[in-house]
Structure formats: C-alpha cells, structure tokens
Amino acid sequence: DKEVRAIFLRLFAQLFQGYRSCLQLIRIHAEPVIHFHKAAFLGQRGLIENDFLTKVLNGMAFAGFVSERGPPFRACDLFDELVAFEVERIKAEEGNPPKMIKHVRELAEQLFKNENPNPHIAFQKVPRPTEGSHLRVHILPFPRINEGRVQELLQEGLARSQGAPPATRGDKKCVVPAGPPVGTFI
Q: Would you give the DSSP letter of residue 9?
C-alpha cells in the first residue's frame, strides 16, 4: 500500500515540479487569493498541447491543491520536499530502475513512519469468543434517560467550551520551499 502511494507521490511531484513559481498572490480582497498561472506553467514546460495535463490543471482537484498548498507559510510535508529538493534525484533515476525502486521504498518507509510515529505501541488483539458464547446472549434493558440531567450536562459543556481557549493544531508552520523554477525541467 505504501509503495503504491509512494509511486503516485513521485508521479505528482514530477508532474507539478515548479508549480510554486507559477503561483500568484492577489491581494484585492480582505483575504488574499492564490491564483495559478496555467499558461505560464504549460508554456515553460513546453506542454501547451498536452491535453491530459491541461485537463488536470483545469480540474476541481487541482484547484483544491492550489488553495491548500499555495500559501507561502504553512506546514510542509514529504510532497513539498520532493518538489523542492529531489528534482535532480528523480531526473537521474529515470533511466535507472533499481535506483527508482530504492527511492520508492524509501518514500514508502517515510510514509509509514509519518502515519505510525510510535512503532513500539503494540496493537492489542481481540480475543476469540469462547465456544457457545452466542448461546449466552444477555440483553439488558436500555436505561431510562433523565432529561433534566441531560440538559444540565449540555449546559455545563457549553459553559466550559465558551471559557476555553480556541483549539490549535500542532502542525509546525514554516516557509514552503519554492524549489527550482519551471524552466529547468525541459
């Protein structure tokens, strides 16, 4: 699973290399708008006639990609590192399948580590039901709910949430590396 995801990560990193140099920040509105200059991106890469890439860039998924990854100050991830720093390595591996496979496995391992930061935590196994357990079904009646107590608990929770500071994400934000300009990939 992780190796397939690593292959797609490399594919999209290759496909969108240099996309940051074609982002434009428009500050007309109260909140800045990020615009992707598609013609410049396709022109600099010599892919103006490429129907597939044109359709990808015109799709809603790419618009979401630009709005999510466009801000210059946000939490960076493995994709940002690939696009910014691994350009030459990906180019060098194009004609060398063993190196490419090695890099895919490294990326897959990094993806696994990102999703499982504490590998020492063991997963508990659910014990198998004992023989004949299906015959010993105990159905307890559902308890009556005290409406007054439910309202008290809701009011207490609301009072606590109004006095609590707003929740913040633990992602460490940084300046997103731009990587090399698009013209270097031709």
A: H
Amino acid letter, 96: N
The DSSP symbol for 185 reads G
- Quote the tokens at residue 149: 């107590």
Spans of all domains in the chain: 1-116+171-175
Answer whether 26's CB lies under 8 Å from 67's CB.
no
Over residues 17-60, the pLDDT tens digits come to 888 888 888 877 777 788 888 888 888 888 888 888 889 899 89
Sequence-distant (≥ 6) Cβ neighbours of residue 3 within 8 angstroms: 104, 105, 108
| 3-class secondary-structure state, position 175 | strand
Phi and psi, residue 34, nearest 5°? -100, 125
CA angle 157, 163, 164 (to 5 degrees): 85
How far apart, in whole angstroms, are the C-alpha atoms of residue 98 and residue 50? 29
What's 26's DSSP letter?
Answer: E
pLDDT (tens digit per residue) in 149-175? 999 999 998 888 887 666 555 567 777
